[in-house]
Specification:
By secondary structure, the chain is an alpha+beta fold. It folds into two domains: 7-176 and 361-374, Ribosomal Protein S5, domain 2 (2-Layer Sandwich); 185-342, GHMP kinase, C-terminal domain (Alpha-Beta Plaits, 2-Layer Sandwich), CATH 3.30.70. It has eleven helices and 13 strands. Strands 2, 3, 4, 5, 6, 8 and 9 form a seven-stranded mixed beta sheet that branches. Strand 11 (281-285) and strand 12 form a beta hairpin. The two termini are 35 Å apart.
């Protein structure tokens, strides 16, 4: 990724003002867990599921408040789960030269945290953009990625950078040994994403697979290799428009992930429900042990049918997302085509439990916040 020059200007008379930042969710299409062992993975930005952040300067009083994930109060008193977000604010202030300034920070999200959709990277990236905007600072894509990854080290220790890229990128990417290559989608296709209602733990899942790998390598190593091969082949399916073969690979990947014991009974039930209503393929996405599933549909009518079946099967929320870039742009401009649930989740990091996701406000609330912050 090329580095773009940074322009540092303060159009507000030298003092920070109000700023806005926006990122979005992501889904791992193929390659969960095997990517940890050097195999490829394919990730998809979900631009129809937004993460938004607003930053309003409190001047040099040093007063900092946070409104996110049901918490509203001083940043210094925020729970430990907000560590990554706190780091995001600090690295943005350092980069902008606004270290002595305080900020009121608000986040709003179209998707819940703790579901493998990249909420921590999306929240950090959105907040960093909001703080830089408030300070009148423009940063290039590579610089924004570096700042977000620095915040992500608090949440994930050694982030691969995949979440950072896909929660702010425009296209699916093939990730191999740290290298990211754009994957073209040359046919209409749709993903249906459904929330199991169970907060997964990526760390627990990754540690569990590593334990299996260390104690039963003869069984686990071939599974990881096969998952990596499926990911590599899925990138070619997207390019060639091979939706039927991609769906079969998704089904195969879910079986392999189940053999690694990272699925969940509710996730398995949702996968079966999607397949029963015509999904070309369905699987868990992300670390597992809960989280979300994704199902592949060839057209929007099929996608909506699958979505409604998943809601009927008990999914708290489900969304339809187009994979083709032109359809993504249409969806962003005219979201009425995609009957999305109008809930917003007040999110900024991993959830401590499935019941700890706070629904916060509506589209009108978010528009009012945006209007107020932009003056």
């Amino acid at each position: 990724m090329a580095t773009t020059a940074t322009t540092q200007t303060r159009p507000r008379g030298g003092e920070p003002g109000r700023g806005y930042g926006e990122t979005w969710a992501k889904a791992i299409l193929m390659g969960e867990h095997s990517v940890v062992y050097g195999y490829p993975a394919v990730a998809v930005p979900l631009k129809t599921l937004k993460m938004r952040a607003w930053a309003s300067s409190t001047g040099r009083s040093g007063r900092n408040t946070l409104r996110a994930l049901g918490y509203y109060g001083p940043m210094l008193q925020a729970p430990a789960q907000f560590g990554g977000l706190m780091r995001a604010i600090q690295v943005a202030k350092d980069f902008a030269g606004c270290c002595e300034c305080g900020f009121d920070i608000i986040t709003r999200s179209d998707f819940p945290a703790g579901r493998g959709l990249g909420s921590s990277a999306a929240a950090s990236g959105a907040v960093i953009r909001a703080v830089l905007d408030a300070c009148g600072i423009k940063a290039g894509a590579a610089q924004l990625a570096a700042l977000t990854n620095e915040a992500e080290t608090v949440t994930h220790g050694h982030p691969s950078g995949l979440d950072t890229v896909t929660t702010s990128g425009q296209h699916p990417v093939l990730f191999t040994h740290g290298d990211m290559r754009r994957v073209s989608v040359n046919t209409p296709a749709y993903l249906v994403i459904a929330d199991s209602g169970v907060a997964g733990s990526t760390k627990e899942a990754v540690d569990g697979v590593r334990g299996q790998y260390e104690h039963d390598r003869l069984r686990v190593a071939p599974i990881l290799k096969d998952l990596g091969a499926l990911a590599q082949q899925s990138a070619e399916d997207l390019k060639q428009g091979g939706l039927d073969s991609l769906g079969l690979r998704m089904d195969a990947a879910h079986r392999l992930l189940s053999e690694l014991h990272v699925s969940h009974p509710i996730v398995d039930a949702l996968v079966r429900a999607a397949r029963s209503r015509g999904a070309l393929g369905a699987k868990l996405t992300g670390g597992g042990l809960g989280g979300c599933i994704i199902a592949l549909a060839p057209d929007v009518l099929s996608a909506q049918r699958i979505r409604h079946a998943l809601l009927a099967a008990g999914a708290p929320s489900a969304w339809v997302h187009p994979l083709n870039q032109l359809d993504v742009e249409v969806a962003n401009d005219a979201s009425v085509e995609f009957d999305r649930i109008p809930e917003r989740y007040d999110c900024a990091g991993p959830l401590p439990s499935a019941g700890a996701c706070f629904v916060a406000g509506t589209d009108a609330d978010a528009d009012a916040i945006d209007a107020a912050f932009r003056g």
